[in-house]
Amino acid sequence: MEELGVCGWLSREGNFYKCGESKHNLLAAKLEKDLDLKMFDEDKAIYLHDTALLETIGYVKFTQSTYGLIGEYYDNQFMLFFGKRFSYEQRRWMEGNISKMLPRQKSECRERLTLGY
């Protein structure tokens, strides 16, 4: 039986890096090192690292977290993205992998793709 749900980071180039729930920071640190990612934040006058770095350079964070469960509803996002628009490669990956997502991930992904992120 195929496991449903995606959890990890999706790069601007459409590469998906899988991790376990609550392991996003560890994976972000590994990707920063392995891919030699760097970004200096002029406002804060520091180099960004880990999750802050990936979010700033346009990676999409997919999570399966249920920490936001309030009764039968979730008060959290299953996709975190702080850019203005998904890249073409990210959109292609999401459209091609939406069937692997959990129901709430699918719903959020469809909504964001339809809104033209």
UniProtKB/TrEMBL annotation:
Protein's recorded name: Uncharacterized protein
Taxonomic source organism: Clostridium vincentii
